[in-house]
Automatic annotation (TrEMBL):
Necessary cofactors: Zn(2+); Mg(2+); Co(2+)
Record-linked Pfam families: PdxA
Keywords annotated in UniProt: Cobalt, Cytoplasm, Magnesium, Metal-binding, NAD, NADP, Oxidoreductase, Pyridoxine biosynthesis, Zinc
GO biological process terms held by the UniProt record: pyridoxal phosphate biosynthetic process; pyridoxine biosynthetic process
Protein name: 4-hydroxythreonine-4-phosphate dehydrogenase
Amino acid sequence: MTPAEHARPGGAPPPIAVSGGDPAGIGPEIAAAAWRALSAAGSPVFAAIGDAALFEAQGAPCARIAQLAEAPAVFARALPVLHRPLAAPARPGRPDPANAPCVVAWIEEAVRLALSGAASAVTTLPINKKALKDGAGFAFPGHTEFLADLCGAGAPTMMLAGPTLRVVPVTIHEPLACVPALLSAEAIERAALHAHQALRRDFGLRAPRLAAAGLNPHAGEGGAMGREEIELIAPALARLRARGVDVAGPLPADAMFHPAARARWDAALCMYHDQALIPFKTLDFDEGVNLTLGLPIVRTSPDHGTAYDIAGRGVASARSLIAALRMAAAMARARRAAAEDATQDGSDGADGEPDREPDAGTGSGPGSARRAGSGAPTRPDRGSAPGAGDARS
Ligand SMILES: NC(=O)c1ccc[n+]([C@@H]2O[C@H](COP(=O)([O-])OP(=O)(O)OC[C@H]3O[C@@H](n4cnc5c(N)ncnc54)[C@H](O)[C@@H]3O)[C@@H](O)[C@H]2O)c1
Ligand SMILES: N[C@H](C(=O)O)[C@H](O)COP(=O)(O)O
């Protein structure tokens, strides 16, 4: 069943499945804090997948549920938990390899629930990749790549979206020394097409504007400081423009994030992780959301990590997680609306694809540009800073 078919009477969407993350990190305390805030607000409804004792230790009343569908009935009075016990007691700031397989299993279960339609989206609490590698032989650099594998999807795209800006790193969790070799026209075009589709379908922008950074200082300075811009990036951008994607660049990365420059684009396509995430976390750390594009499910996460240095002290902010839950709900709503429209007009629901190319190569098939994503987005197409304000339901 799809999330739409799982929708409760009155049109309420299925709950969001929240994977419990690293039990030694700040995940349990921010999940409890997010439940306090969102249960008071009434939505979005979510359920945690993890050891209920972790959340109870944060002072949150927990309701151990047998299935996700029970979450809405208890959400106002307790944090719904699909109780999956840890192998060893959790100690803040001190990951235990014995618990790593549980953490991986919680992510797998959240994805299964979303793929089945029982969950409208997945929001992940932070993991420590090294702890999972050491304890469970986790072979992925992060959730992003793991989720794509679990979903049987092609290469995924990472986007970070916040109140001030959106960024998309073309290469994701790669050592800097490997970036030039891994940067391909295919990767640039795929990330741009995923971003273009998401901006239309999930964020409601009718005519999204992308801006691509160069790889080298001064975007290569006409070849004097590197040739990737001339040989790789500019030709890829030209092909994207021919497909109807509005993308500027390659631009010098150091000069594209100041306020006047940011006003000219809706998302920045960056060539490597820190080129994207340094400006993002500098400006939007507190309410930033990490989302994965190119999956058949909605996935969001807070933009921060396990924060072992403050875990268990009760000082962690839940604002990024709350923004991630709200954005997940808004994206799921937009995709349901697009799917319903598609059912009515006989198209495939893959709205948000570029105008001039039937196969955008995003893994979601051909689409049209008749309308931008419906439902979730509220931000006007132009004239306001790009961000996640549209997802604050
Ligand atoms: N989505 C994810 O699962 C995710 C995201 C980023 C990093 N990580 C992982 O987390 C681990 C630690 O990474 P890191 O140290 O680079 O980044 P981090 O985000 O965990 O911490 C960076 C700094 O920000 C602070 N901080 C983080 N979240 C906070 C919050 N909610 N409230 C207040 N302060 C907060 C921390 O105390 C620390 O000083 C790494 O293993 C990394 O891979 C996971
Ligand atoms: N690159 C992300 C960040 O620094 O915020 C982080 O590692 C999360 O990645 P996953 O969502 O793939 O775990």
